[in-house]
Write a structure and sequence with these properties.
single chain, 488 residues, alpha+beta, 17 helices, 16 strands, binds histidyl-adenosine monophosphate
């Protein structure tokens, strides 16, 4: 059937009519939706959400349990931890590596170990739309090892030292120093089996912590042997623990089957009693592991680091071999949580499909470092404060001030402004509050003349200068040490 031709003006009219009808029907639809039944159900929802907020249940506009915001006032601590740890990584020859937050779940199941708390209870796992089973990383080492193998890093000159930092996810019971999202700093070295590297790792861990102002640290160290000698030790331990099974907590009874070494660091009183008389791994090391541990202790003696052998230290991840260690604050109040921990993992690269490669490393918890820094009143980073304020008055001046700010900033001069405020009085109040030395005033007249007023805030003296010379004049006025040159 031939289509009826419609003139352009008619078409426009029809379109407008259609849109009007559409809007009307939307409006009536909305009206229909707002019945008294709906109002009361909405009210119920609000009440339910309020109840959830007060009871700490999940609500979409509160942080999820175990997660937290890092607010601006805390950033100087975070920045301090980042800059110190990155600087020390460079000083000790580490290159930075970043690996994804999401990896195949199997990577962690194999790497960290099936019987560990991390894999059994704490992993955030999900299936993607493409049906892949993935997990938010519950630790960083497995991903780093995966990347090491995937990118053929074994061909690089050894040792290959990698530094990494970022968030880690564990569905644990949240409490102070234990979160479901926490940030770690990791240092790992591949390709060296000499215990001198274990000692250097411990040295770096202590150095990072002490450089952050946590001066009193304690290192706990142990050796859990290699797969060969650990097999015999494991059997010995199982025999001992079986004989005391009745005295163990429910969790440890389960651990006894899958991961008996973990019974040793259970914090339950009754398990602690049992593990105190348990056979110790260092008494059952093969010759190679014994010499490795003895040499490590000799290096630590040389370093003058305060360390203690903790025979119950086994760590919560299955990949460790020989050396395991933790870093603790030596302050009484700081003894609740380890600041960091690590060890040797000589079998992990091979287990994940790479060449036989010895490796050693550790992770530090950033939140725990910051909690301890605050407790010992360590310094956070303080950013240089601006010494100059740029004030503007009138429309043209306001427009020019943006460009002048950029000109000064490009030349390394740190300055403040309050562009949104209209009155000069209000802007000078801000300048006074900030304690700046000079205020540059760009008024309507100055904007037209191409000048700017320079006001000395201490003496109140004012002078007028050419706008195009302002950078040089400001640099001269503030003695060199007063000008904050923050760009090189
Ligand atoms: P990790 O001991 O499980 O080791 O974690 C390292 C550090 O992360 C801990 O010492 C602690 O400071 C912090 N941390 C762990 N869990 C939490 C949590 N739930 N909340 C806050 N902080 C926490 C590892 O993850 C190994 N991958 C470290 C490593 C690197 N081993 C060799 N290379």
């Amino acid at each position: 059937m031939p289509r009826k031709k419609v003139s352009t003006s008619q078409a426009k009219k029809n379109k407008t009519k259609k849109n009007t009808i559409k809007r009307k029907s939307q409006a009536s639809g909305n009206k229909k939706k707002t019945t008294s039944k709906n109002i009361s159900s909405n009210k119920k929802k609000v009440v339910k959400v309020e109840k959830n907020i007060s009871s700490g249940k999940f609500t979409p506009w509160q942080t999820v349990r175990g997660m937290k915001d890092t607010l601006p006032q805390d950033q100087p601590f975070w920045y301090q931890v980042r800059r110190i740890s990155e600087k020390l990584a460079r000083d000790f020859g580490f290159s930075r590596i970043d690996v994804p937050l999401v990896e195949a779940s199997d990577l962690f199941i194999r790497g960290v170990g099936e019987g560990t708390d991390i894999v059994e209870k704490e992993m955030y796992t999900f299936t993607t739309r493409g049906n892949d089973k993935v997990a938010l990383r519950p630790e960083m080492t497995s991903g780093i090892v995966r990347s090491y193998i995937q990118h053929g890093m074994q061909s690089l000159p050894k040792p290959i030292k990698l530094f990494s930092t970022g968030p880690v996810y564990r569905y644990d019971r949240p409490q102070e120093g234990r979160y479901r999202e926490h940030y770690q700093i990791n240092y790992d070295a591949f390709g060296e089996s000499d215990p001198i590297i274990d000692a250097q790792m411990i040295q770096i861990a202590a150095r990072v912590v002490q450089s952050l102002g946590i001066k009193a640290v304690q290192i706990q160290v142990n050796s859990i042997g290699c797969p060969t000698c650990r097999k015999d030790y494991r059997n010995l331990l199982i025999n001992y623990l079986e004989s005391k099974k009745g005295k163990l907590c429910q969790d440890c009874k389960r651990r006894l089957e899958k991961n008996p070494l973990r019974v040793l660091d259970c914090k339950e009183d009754k398990c602690f009693q049992v593990s105190s008389s348990a056979p110790q791994s260092i008494d059952h090391l093969c010759d190679e592991c014994r010499i490795h541990f003895k040499t490590l202790l000799e290096y630590l003696d040389e370093l003058d680091l305060p360390y203690a052998i903790n025979p119950k230290l086994v760590r919560g991840l299955d990949y460790y071999t020989k050396t395991v260690f933790e870093v603790w604050s030596a302050q009484e109040d700081g003894k609740k949580n380890a600041l960091g921990g690590g060890g040797r993992y000589d079998g992990l690269v091979k287990m994940l499909g790479g060449e036989n490669t010895p490796a050693v490393g550790f992770g530090l918890g950033m939140e725990r470092l910051i909690l301890e820094m605050k407790r010992v009143q360590a310094k956070s980073y303080s950013h240089p404060k601006p010494k100059i304020f740029l004030a503007q008055l009138g429309d043209l001046a306001k427009k020019k001030s943006l460009k002048m700010f950029l000109e000064l900033e490009k030349n390394g001069i740190l300055l403040a402004e309050s562009f949104g405020r209209g009155s000069l009085k209000a802007q000078l109040r801000v300048a006074n509050k900030l304690g700046v030395e000079l205020t540059l005033i760009l008024g309507q007249k100055e904007a037209i003349d191409g000048t700017v007023i320079i006001k000395n805030m201490a003496s109140g003296e004012q002078e007028t200068a050419r706008a195009e010379k302002i950078v040089d004049i400001v640099k001269k006025k503030l003695k060199t040490d007063n000008v904050v040159i923050y760009k090189k």
